[in-house]
Amino acid sequence: MQDIFCPLKLTGVAASLCDALGLEKPEKAEEQIDILKKLTEGKNIDRVFMYNPDAVALWLFEKYTDIFTPVMLNSDITLPLQTVMPSVTPVCFATMYTGAEPEIHGIQSYTKPVIKTDTVFDVLIRNGKKPCIVSTGNDSMSKIFLEREMDYFIVETPDEANEKALELIKEDKYDLICVYNANYDSRMHRVGPEGDEAIDALRHNVKAYETFAKAIRENWKNHKTLLGFAPDHGCHEIDGGAGSHGLMMPEDMNIIHFYKVI
């Protein structure tokens, strides 16, 4: 059977986020995704909240659709996307927030240098807006977007990251909040993508997104927000029952994003 890859690409997310806020795209970003433009056009969006759970593949959504019910109920669109190669965390998040292919933004392997290419964060900063990142220490989202005039909240666990994100929603001062959770990815590597611990972590990710949506409705009533559930790459099972990713195969390349305007 021929491998099938999603036609829409992760490279379009950065321009779409900036366009939703009425801003120019990052300098090297590819064009935005039409369906996201149609979702946000004319909505006067002034806030973006991006929830970034690691390694949530399209095939997980297809096989465990019921788990994703709270996400779907808090989404306007379900958006299958093709990520980039190699399909590993720093490469994919660099593409998500620069809108550029790896050979352009410069991260082409599992390394975590600070990106010098223009990003969504730089666009907001240039336009007088306040972005921030909430992540766990030593993870890609804590490393590759450093050295910018923005706030970074680096904590020890995904639960602490989510608690901090809820505090920031209540503070109501950031125009873009990006929250990274590594829990599904870390468990998937140990017990396989469908191991009990991994599926429990996936449920935890779904609950986190639902909780963020509720908090935004309660605390950002004076704003119009684009909310995203936006993983970086997929995953597959390898010998010994463990999980992995990084290959040019549908299980690793095809991911699922969800977006809602609140």
Topology overview:
Blueprint lengths: L12 H8 L13 H7 L6 E7 L4 H6 L5 H5 L3 E6 L6 H10 L3 H4 L14 H7 L4 E6 L3 H4 L7 E5 L2 H14 L4 E6 L1 H9 L4 H24 L5 E5 L6 E2 L5 E2 L5 H4 E8 L1
Parallel strand pairs: 1-5, 1-6, 3-4, 3-5
Antiparallel strand pairs: 2-9, 6-9, 7-8
Helix pairs in contact: 1-2, 9-11, 10-11
Indicate the radius of gyration in whole angstroms.
17 Å
The CATH class is identified as: Alpha Beta
The overall number of domains is: 1
Number of helices: 12
How many E strands? 9
Here the CATH topology equals Alkaline Phosphatase, subunit A
Output the helix-strand order: HHEHHEHHHEHEHEHHEEEHE
Pick out the low-confidence regions: none
SS-derived structural category? alpha/beta
Write structural notes for this entry.
With 262 residues, this protein is an alpha/beta fold. The chain has a single domain (10-261), classed as Alkaline Phosphatase, subunit A, CATH 3.40.720. 39% of the residues lie in helices and 18% in strands. The chain has helices at 13-20, 34-40, 58-63, 69-73, 89-98, 102-105, 120-126, 140-143, 158-171, 183-191, 196-219, 250-253, and strands at 47-53, 77-82, 131-136, 151-155, 176-181, 225-229, 236-237, 243-244, 254-261. The strands form two sheets. A seven-stranded mixed sheet has the order 2-9-6-1-5-3-4, sandwiched between helices. Strands 7-8 form a two-stranded antiparallel sheet. Helix 1 (13-20) runs parallel beside helix 2, helix 9 (158-171) packs parallel to helix 11 (196-219) and helix 10 runs antiparallel to helix 11. The longest helix is centred in the last third of the chain and has 24 residues, at 196-219. The chain is globular, with a radius of gyration of 17 Å. The chain starts with 12 loop residues before the first helix and ends with a strand. The mean pLDDT is 97.
